[in-house]
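Chain A, query sequence.
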Amino acid sequence: MSRRRKKSKHEEHVDESWLLPYSDLLTLLVALFIVLFASSSIDMQKFQSLSNAFNAELTGGSGFFQYPSPIPEGTHGTSDEMPEAEKTQKEHYKKTPELTAEERQEQEKLSEIQNNINAYVQENGLSQQLNTSLTVEGLSLTIRDNILFDPGSAEVLPENIQVAQEISKLLEMDISRTIIISGHTDNVPMHNDEFASNWELSVMRAINFMKILLENPNLKPELFTARGSGEFQPITSNETAEGRAKNRRVEVLIQPVIDGGQEASRE
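Chain A, predicted structure.
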């Protein structure tokens, strides 16, 4: 009887062999979630630690963690950590360039020229048509097209030729500086008997304005350049009539002297 009772107890024992694959499945799921979390912000040191841990914990054989990483050694995939060269480049653009003593002196001279132009603008009530700005690129004088040209025309209005002549006197400087004359238009298509595009109109406006400036014998033609940008460098939106009027302009850029300058000889 005792033997039969023992045998029946043994037959009633629950089979627990399912626990092994179940535990393996849970382990794999945990590993999957950890990998997904780690892959969202790859750190090579953590990635290698996870690789070693998983290879040892699982079969112990070779797996995909043992293959070479597609990310080069010494680099990181996080946005906070980047290659040193990229860091240096970003820092370079963040820093405001420090001016040398000569560059500061040149900025002061351009500032004096700006003050003279601004005084002329105020005296003649042209603040709505002319304005100046001083940057590291140089001193820029912006002239609205309605003070110089009729719509669709590149000929300087006779009544405003004197304005161009006065500006030419303001460009007389003791030190030679390169001057760029740029023509700009709005985005309204240009097509008439004289000009097939805004490119041509903007170029001819710059050239005709420059011709009047160079009637001044004290200016050196070799220092002047004329160019046209058409409608492709707007300073404001072309969606409104006011914006289009601002984009139709001629710009005079007085560039700073680079590596010193030579005095301009005057006859």
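Residues 47 and 259 are 52 Å apart (CA to CA). Residues 14-94 form one domain.
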